[in-house]
Write a structure and sequence with these properties.
Blueprint (H helix, E strand, L loop, with lengths): L5 H15 L1 H47 L10
Length: 78
């Protein structure tokens, strides 16, 4: 038992191509590439977007609180 040689991997690749076909493998590669690109973009924008989302959420919560809160002066009974 040991590592596989280059010839072993070429034979495995040939069998995979024969079983799945090149069109399905091309589609799979494109889907995988798009997912990786989307993940990288999300990681780049993650720091700035999370802060701006938190700020927008705080502003929305404040405006929602302004609409539902009734501000009155309480007077004590004497």
């Amino acid at each position: 038992m040991g590592t596989f040689s280059v010839w072993h991997w070429l034979i495995v690749l040939l069998i995979v191509v024969l079983v799945f076909g090149t069109k399905k493998l091309k589609n799979l590669g494109g889907d995988l590439g798009g997912a990786v690109k989307g993940f990288k973009d999300g990681m780049k924008e993650g720091g700035t977007t999370a802060d701006s989302v938190a700020e927008k959420s705080a502003v929305a919560d404040q405006s929602k609180a302004d609409k539902t809160t009734i501000d009155v002066d309480a007077k004590q009974k004497s």
